[in-house]
């Protein structure tokens, strides 16, 4: 699967909608996806016709982190072949993506529907708007940075946050409830 099909791009007037499209892997970001997102965000920063970027996931996850978590075997194989740099590059470019998202002048809206872990939190938490739903399930490094001892409580108890709790503690900026 190419990065073009793993990150779908939809253009609607001045809005760009980026959809992470690896639903069987819970949209875990592989190196090609991270590179593609980085390329797109940099291009949108320079394009005056782009006014808003929306990032969302296909299926039951926004993004379950970096593909290293689920696709360890290819990385181990590369290391054994002396290509350790490939494993390091996924982290380097991932942190570059975080920086570009955090400093981008174009507003980004991340629709955090479903599972949000690791790199998924990284590429969304630095954006301007994070929209949680009643199906949002976060797990992240960012818990330890929450006010008070809320993050420690979640980490120690394994408690799950819902969309309203994410909004209350600052992990989300907005909440959408889908009424049945």
From TrEMBL:
Q: What reaction is this protein's catalytic activity?
A: 3-hydroxy-2-methylpropanoyl-CoA + H2O = 3-hydroxy-2-methylpropanoate + CoA + H(+)
Pathway noted in the entry:
Amino-acid degradation; L-valine degradation
The UniProt record lists the EC number as 3.1.2.4
Q: Which GO terms describe its biological process?
A: L-valine catabolic process
Q: Which organism is it from?
A: Eutrema salsugineum
- Which stretches make up the Enoyl-CoA hydratase/isomerase domain? 15-176
What domain of life does the UniProt record list for this protein's source? Answer: Eukaryota
Q: Name one GO molecular function term.
A: 3-hydroxyisobutyryl-CoA hydrolase activity
Keywords assigned by UniProt, alphabetized? Hydrolase
Q: Which family is this sequence assigned to?
A: Belongs to the enoyl-CoA hydratase/isomerase family.
Task: Write out the function statement from the record.
Answer: Hydrolyzes 3-hydroxyisobutyryl-CoA (HIBYL-CoA), a saline catabolite. Has high activity toward isobutyryl-CoA. Could be an isobutyryl-CoA dehydrogenase that functions in valine catabolism.
Question: What is the protein name for this chain?
Answer: 3-hydroxyisobutyryl-CoA hydrolase
The reply on keyword Hydrolase is yes
Is Hydrolase among the key words of this record?
Answer: yes
Any Pfam family matching the protein:
ECH_2
Return the broad EC class: hydrolase
Species lineage: Eukaryota, Viridiplantae, Streptophyta, Embryophyta, Tracheophyta
